[in-house]
C-alpha cells in the first residue's frame, strides 16, 4: 500500500521534500503545484509534490525513493494527451520537461524524453533528414510519443524508432530496441511495463531540404486549418474505430458544439473537445462520456479514448 500524504505537506521540511532536494536542485521540487499549469487542457488540481529532474540519475534516484518510502508516484509527461482530475494527484508527480536535449549524428537523432516531438522533426529538417515529417504537428513530448506510438498523416513513431532508454519500476536503467516495445496503433507496452522513457534514438534518411520542408508546410497547414488550436485541448480524444472516423461519427450524431459547462465538442473538428470557457476536468470528462454514449446509441460503435485520465475527483 502506497502512503498517501495529502494534507501532510504543509511545510517544506516534510521528510520526502527534504530527500527530494538532496537528489535534485531545490527549484526542481514544487509543493502543492497546480497541474492545470502543466497540461494542454488547462485542467487539473494540485500535485502534492511536482519534481522536474535534470538527469537520468536523478530520475532513477526519485523512483527508488518513492519505492523505499512507499509513496505514490505518477509520471506526468508534458501533459498534451492527458486529463488530470480536479482533485489533483497524491504523492510525487514527475515531469521530464528538463530532459530535452536533441543530438544529431549522421542519420541518427537522439532526443530526450522531454523534448517536443515537433522540435525533433524541425531538427531533422535542418539536418536534411527525412522520416519525421508526419510529427511536425504532434504537440506531445518524445516520451509521450513513444508511450502511445504517436502518429499522424500515415506515419508512426515505430516507423523511425530504433531504441529507447528507460527506467523500470525498480529504478533500473535499460536500453530497449523498438521490437521489445510491442508498438501498434496508438499503443505500446510502455504503460503496462510502467517504464519511464528517458530518451529515444531515431534512424532517418538523407533527403532534400526543400522537399522535406514542403511536406511539413503542407501538413502544418492541414493541421492549423482543421484543428481548434485557438482553445486548450488534449488533442484527438478518441482512437479511430475500425472502419470509421471518430470525428465523422461524432458530427453525424449532431454533437458538434455540444457543451457541458466550459467544455465543448469543437465546432472546427468534432474529434476534439476544447476547454472553451474555464472548464473543470469533471465537465470535460462528462462530455467525453456523453459523446461515447451518444455515438454508441446512434451507430453501435464504442469510441475508445486516446486521451489518458488520471488523478482524483475533487
Strand-helix topology:
Elements lengths: L14 H9 L5 E6 L11 E6 L4 H14 L3 E3 L6 E3 L4 E6 L7 E4 L2 E5 L4 H10 L2 E2 L11 H6 L3 E2 L2 E2 L4 E7 L5 E5 L12 H4 L2 E8 L1 E2 L2 H18 L6 E4 L9 H7 L6 E2 L2 E3 L6 E4 L5 H19 L8 E3 L4
Parallel strand pairs: 2-5, 3-5, 4-19
Antiparallel strand pairs: 1-2, 6-7, 7-13, 8-14, 9-10, 11-12, 11-13, 15-18, 16-17, 17-18
Helix pairs in contact: 1-2
Name the average pLDDT.
92
| Residue fraction in strands | 15-25%
Low-pLDDT segments, ≥5 res: none
Number of domains: 3
The succession of helices and strands, N to C, reads HEEHEEEEEHEHEEEEHEEHEHEEEHE
Helix proportion of residues, in percent? 25-40%
User: What order do the strands of the largest sheet run in, or round the barrel if closed?
Assistant: 6-7-13-11-12
Please give the CATH architecture of the largest domain.
2-Layer Sandwich
Q: Total strand count, please?
A: 19
Helical element count? 8
Largest sheet: 5 strands, antiparallel
- Give the class from helix and strand content and strand pairing: alpha+beta
The CATH topology of the largest domain comes to: Uridine Diphospho-n-acetylenolpyruvylglucosamine Reductase, domain 3
Classified by CATH, the class of the largest domain is Alpha Beta
Give the overall shape: globular
End-to-end Cα distance, whole Å, is: 22 Å
Rg, Å, rounded: 20 Å
Description of the structure:
It comes from Oceanobacillus picturae. Its EC number is 1.3.1.98. The protein is α+β, with helices and mostly antiparallel strands. It folds into 3 domains: 15-94, Uridine Diphospho-n-acetylenolpyruvylglucosamine Reductase, domain 2; 102-211, Uridine Diphospho-n-acetylenolpyruvylglucosamine Reductase, domain 3 (2-Layer Sandwich); 228-310, Alpha-Beta Complex (Uridine Diphospho-n-acetylenolpyruvylglucosamine Reductase, domain 1), CATH 3.90.78. It contains 8 helices and 19 strands. The chain has helices at residues 15-23, 56-69, 117-126, 142-147, 190-193, 209-226, 246-252, 281-299, and strands at 29-34, 46-51, 73-75, 82-84, 89-94, 102-105, 108-112, 129-130, 151-152, 155-156, 161-167, 173-177, 196-203, 205-206, 233-236, 259-260, 263-265, 272-275, 308-310. It has a 5-stranded antiparallel β-sheet. The mean pLDDT is 92.
Amino acid at each position: 500500500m502506497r502512503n498517501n500524504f495529502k494534507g501532510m505537506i504543509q511545510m517544506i521540511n516534510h521528510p520526502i521534500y527534504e530527500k527530494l532536494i538532496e537528489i535534485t536542485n531545490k527549484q526542481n521540487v514544487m509543493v502543492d503545484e497546480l497541474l492545470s499549469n502543466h497540461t494542454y487542457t488547462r485542467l487539473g488540481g494540485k500535485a502534492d509534490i511536482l519534481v522536474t529532474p535534470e538527469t537520468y540519475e536523478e530520475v532513477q534516484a526519485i523512483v527508488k525513493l518513492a519505492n523505499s518510502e512507499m509513496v505514490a508516484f505518477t509520471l506526468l509527461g508534458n501533459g498534451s494527451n492527458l486529463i488530470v482530475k480536479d482533485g489533483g494527484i497524491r504523492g510525487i508527480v514527475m515531469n521530464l520537461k528538463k530532459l530535452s536535449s536533441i543530438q544529431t549524428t549522421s542519420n541518427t537523432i537522439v532526443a530526450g524524453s522531454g523534448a517536443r516531438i515537433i522540435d525533433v522533426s524541425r531538427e531533422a529538417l535542418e539536418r536534411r533528414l527525412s522520416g519525421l515529417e508526419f510529427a511536425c504537428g504532434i504537440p506531445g513530448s518524445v516520451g509521450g510519443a513513444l508511450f502511445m506510438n504517436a502518429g499522424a498523416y500515415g506515419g508512426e513513431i515505430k516507423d523511425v524508432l530504433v531504441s529507447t532508454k528507460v527506467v523500470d519500476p525498480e529504478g533500473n536503467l535499460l536500453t530497449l530496441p523498438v521490437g521489445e516495445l510491442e508498438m501498434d496503433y496508438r499503443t505500446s507496452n510502455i504503460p503496462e511495463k510502467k517504464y519511464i522513457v528517458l530518451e529515444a534514438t531515431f534512424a532517418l534518411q538523407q533527403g532534400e531540404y526543400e522537399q522535406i520542408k514542403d511536406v511539413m508546410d503542407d501538413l502544418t497547414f492541414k493541421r492549423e486549418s482543421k484543428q481548434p488550436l485557438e482553445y486548450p485541448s488534449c488533442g484527438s480524444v478518441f482512437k479511430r474505430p475500425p472502419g470509421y472516423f471518430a470525428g465523422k461519427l461524432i458530427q453525424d450524431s449532431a454533437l458538434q458544439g455540444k457543451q457541458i459547462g466550459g467544455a465543448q465538442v469543437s465546432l472546427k473538428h468534432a474529434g476534439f473537445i476544447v476547454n472553451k470557457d474555464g472548464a473543470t476536468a469533471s465537465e470535460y470528462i462528462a462530455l467525453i462520456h456523453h459523446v461515447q454514449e451518444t455515438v454508441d446509441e446512434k451507430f453501435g460503435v464504442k469510441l475508445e479514448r486516446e486521451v489518458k485520465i488520471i488523478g482524483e475527483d475533487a
